[in-house]
Amino acid sequence: MRHLPGLAVVLDSPLKPHPPGGSMGDCHGDFGPWNIVWRGERPVGILDWDNARPRPRLHDIAYALEYVAPFRDDAECLRWLRWLTPPNRRHRLELFAAAYGLTSTTGLIDAVIGVQRDVIEQVRRLADAGHRPQVRWIADGFLDEAGQRRAWSRANRHLFE
């Protein structure tokens, strides 16, 4: 992300763009390991740009942190994310911030929780407008799961501080 300035914004997105200016930038919108092309341990490309649009520059950082820190309980980390032991979330948050070039982690936890809220609102909005796959996601329980993850993040922020 940091080394890809001026990313192209998808113009036919059903999402409403933010006005230009200030802390806004072109963001991927679904930046996680599943959308990165890897050559060995080095990222060489980014896939799936259908959620790209101008957003606060911190959006993609916070979105990725939700998964790489991770903002998940230990049971989910062990069972679904295949961790061998529960992660040291604070250390991972610090490593990610340093690798990205941030000089502080201040505000990152709140940014992740904010992105979790924004994703819930965005999925609800798109489903209400009839967009797929969001209609299916809601039928499959996405809003409940995402709400539970957000509640976990708020209740367990001390693990990242």
UniProtKB/TrEMBL annotation:
It comes from the Bacteria. SUPFAM superfamilies: Protein kinase-like (PK-like). InterPro entries: Aminoglycoside_PTrfase (IPR002575), Kinase-like_dom_sf (IPR011009). It holds the Pfam family APH. This is Phosphotransferase. Residues 18-77 form the Aminoglycoside phosphotransferase domain.
